[in-house]
Amino acid sequence: MVVDMSLREKKAAKKKEEILRSASLVIARNGYKNATMEDIAAELLMTKGSLYYYFKNKEELLYKCHELILSCAMERLEELFLENLSAREKMQRAIKVHLDIVIQEKEVFNLIGKPEQIFSEENIVKVFQKRDEYAGIFDRIIDEGVARGEFIIDQKKMARMMILGAANWVQVWYSSEGQYGKDELEEIYAKYLLKILL
Q1: How far apart are CA 125 and CA 141, in angstroms?
Q2: In 3D, which of 56, 71, 143 has the Cα closest to residue 108?
Q3: pLDDT confidence of residue 89
Q4: Mean pLDDT on 67-73
Q5: pLDDT bucket at 1, cuts 50 / 70 / 90
Q6: What value, to the nearest 5°, has the Cα angle with vertex 25 and ends 22 and 27?
């Protein structure tokens, strides 16, 4: 009986992730304000009623979608932090990871920007907490760099805010049809934003 429950839970979790991935595509295509439960259900060839079986409303779906994307990004950054690399190399790679998420998951990542316009008070607290945990990985890389003498800065938090702020701005103007491809853009940004810490 325990095995059956576990299998059912695994199937439900897998289905939820599938829904969230599809929701991300719909949000990327339509924007989060225009993405409807009907659109997301259609993307999955589900009925709207079936979608409500997994998520009670659009806000919960959007929150879980945001949480999934940010958790995946944090997982990538945590793995990077544990690698045997210089703090400079870690920061360059972390900036590239951040830009990758900002560009690839533009609409979902935007949910971090002004959560009070989308989420209830209960979810806002969790969004801010997750956002602080995400930024905290960058803080740890900076702390490590300062401790090793690789970075020479007094205002560590301000430096991190400048790096992430500049990287976040990319989504405003970046186009895959523009002068620079994503990989080239990430290289350029990582090179110049790193200088803030040197």
Answers
A1: 25
A2: 71
A3: 97
A4: 87
A5: very low
A6: 110
